[in-house]
Q: What sequence folds into this?
């Protein structure tokens, strides 16, 4: 039985390959959130690219489902051969890291280092506590 979400087929060959790679090489979970792999919403992230032009990137394939299928099929042997070059990430995490406009990997190294220091210095408050406190004042 073919499962559809919108116009995406989730029982396709590329998704099966992603599920196999997630289990075989990435402990079946997102490196950052540790969320268990799901058949939708995960990507294989390149930690570095081969400089000889022999790497496979998503931009080498057409947009849409046919391009996705071809890309994942071509990526599979690269992940199998050098899994240390890749990690499994939830799509939202990948976007935060690598988005063309505001991805963290796009920052200059020194700015990124200062950003990490600022994040570590920042003390977070629990939102649930603040919401309860506001409700009790009303």
A:
């Amino acid at each position: 039985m073919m499962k559809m979400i919108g116009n995406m087929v989730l029982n396709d060959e590329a998704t099966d390959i992603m599920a196999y790679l997630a289990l075989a090489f990435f402990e079946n979970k997102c490196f950052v959130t540790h969320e268990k792999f799901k058949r939708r919403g995960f990507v294989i992230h390149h930690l570095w690219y081969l400089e000889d032009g022999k790497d496979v990137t998503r931009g080498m394939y057409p947009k849409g489902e046919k391009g996705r299928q071809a890309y994942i099929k071509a990526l599979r042997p690269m992940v199998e051969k050098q899994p240390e070059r890749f990690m499994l990430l939830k799509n939202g995490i990948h976007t935060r890291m690598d988005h063309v406009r505001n991805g963290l990997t796009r920052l200059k190294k020194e700015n990124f280092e200062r950003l990490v220091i600022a994040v570590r210095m920042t003390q977070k408050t629990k939102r649930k506590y603040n919401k309860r406190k506001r409700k009790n004042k009303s």
Residues 37 and 69 are 18 Å apart (CA to CA). The first helix runs from residue 13 to 25. The two ends are 53 Å apart (CA to CA).
